[in-house]
Amino acid sequence: MMKMVKELVYWWMCLGVLCCVVIDGTVVTDCGSVARVDRVDIEGCIIPPCVVTRPDIQDVNITFTPDYQVESFSSVLDAYFGDAHYPWPGPGGCDLLTEGGSCPLLAGHTYHFHSIMPVLSIYPELSVVVTWFLEDENNKPLVCIRFPVIIL
């Protein structure tokens, strides 16, 4: 009986540690990243849909590790509202790397991308699915993440 209790406690502790690891950062869907996406942090959002209010500014941090050298990259956003697709101008690329990162990106090194996205008062109240790409110089998706957003 005591062995069974010890095993049960062990598995509960393992589950607790696993939950802490999984919930660290914002939960997003990977939609074809060729780099390893290490972490995504969307300010005020752990489990989507991410609720943002107008007007506001939204911090987005993406930590990733490419497995090949990348000369440059750009950011591309797409918003999907039902069947409608709205391309959105991306905020930048190499210029938004933080913690001393710069282009070219070296294979196996970890990089931190930080963007500040405005949520303008002219935006309508709606629910959208955002797809965010960090595309290399050959338009390959280093990072492709997808997450739902509710604008209030």
| Count of DSSP H/I helices | 1
- Would you report the number of β strands? 10
Order of helices and strands: HEEEEEEEEEE
Q: Overall pLDDT, averaged?
A: 87
Main location: secreted
Signal peptide: 1-19
Subcellular location: Secreted
Domain MD-2-related lipid-recognition: 28-149
Kindly describe this structure.
The structure is a single chain. The chain is globular. It is mainly β. The protein has a single domain (27-151), classed as Immunoglobulin-like (Sandwich), CATH 2.60.40. Strands 1, 3, 5, 6, 9 and 10 form a 6-stranded mixed sheet that branches. The chain has a 4-stranded antiparallel sheet with strand order 2-4-8-7, with no helix packed on it. It has 1 helix and 10 strands; from the N terminus they run αββββββββββ. Strand 5 and strand 6 (84-88) form a beta hairpin. It has one helix at 2-22, and strands at residues 29-30, 36-42, 50-52, 56-65, 73-81, 84-88, 97-98, 111-119, 126-136, 141-151. InterPro entries: Ig_E-set, ML_dom, NPC2-like. One of its GO terms (molecular function) is sterol binding.
Short summary:
With 152 residues, this protein is mainly β. Helix content is 14%, strand content 45%. It contains one helix and ten strands.
